[in-house]
# Entry
Amino acid sequence: MNSKELAEIEKLIEKEMEKTANTVAEYREMTKPISPDEAIGRITRMDAINNKSVAEAALRSAVLKLNRLKDVFGKLQHSDFGICRKCGEQIPIQRILLVPQVPFCVHCAQ
# Structure
């Protein structure tokens, strides 16, 4: 992988980390406890609790993605960056640009 491709990947990962961090912040806001003092109906409260559960699952997923992006960002300069962890072959640059946090080539990911 040449330096131009690495610079492009670095910019992409920085942009994706910023976007994901914003998403995490939004989900954290959505998962705050629902106060029993709020005067909302029983059905509305049940709906809010259900939405909170969905948001909590999305939060866990976004935090995992952010952690993986940070991990990949720290490994950009290592010689094994872009190498599939399973087969040891080079991961195609298009795959890395599409999903930078992926540790496997398409074949091994299946």
Notes: Residues 3-79 form one domain.
